């Protein structure tokens, strides 16, 4: 695992097409799991990113994908970033995690089997 304490340049990090910024208040867990599968189909890898309390959600998403044989863990990066409180008050440090997952060797095979099963159930 890599631990860093410098802030991340948001302009450079926000232009990645295969990045999913996870929030634990916006969408249900399996929305992110399914989105990550689609990103891996399209880009062969996906980067899951979260701040603060959403870190547990990102770890859960990564573990679901790994335990189902769909993904392999390529890289985990942790850092802290300075954020301003909403009222413009003092800066607050927030923990950040970024997990890079790649397609497993069986990804395409498993996704094809799941698609076939979905057709059979219709």
UniProtKB/TrEMBL annotation:
It comes from the Eukaryota. InterPro entries: Alba-like_dom_sf (IPR036882), DNA/RNA-bd_Alba-like (IPR002775), UCP030333_Alba (IPR014560). Residues 18-79 form the DNA/RNA-binding protein Alba-like domain. This is DNA/RNA-binding protein Alba-like domain-containing protein. It comes from Hibiscus sabdariffa (roselle).
């Amino acid at each position: 695992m890599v631990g860093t304490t410098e802030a991340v340049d948001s302009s450079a990090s926000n232009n990645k097409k295969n990045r999913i910024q996870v929030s634990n208040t916006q969408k249900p867990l399996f929305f992110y799991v399914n989105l990550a599968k689609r990103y891996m189909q399209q880009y062969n890898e996906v980067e899951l990113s979260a701040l603060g309390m959403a870190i547990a959600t990102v770890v859960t998403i990564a573990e679901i994908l790994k335990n189902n044989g769909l993904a392999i863990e390529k890289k985990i990066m942790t850092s802290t970033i300075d954020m301003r409180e909403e009222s413009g008050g003092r800066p607050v440090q927030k923990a950040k995690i970024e997990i890079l997952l790649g397609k497993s060797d069986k990804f395409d095979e498993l996704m094809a089997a799941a698609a076939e099963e979905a057709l059979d159930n219709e």
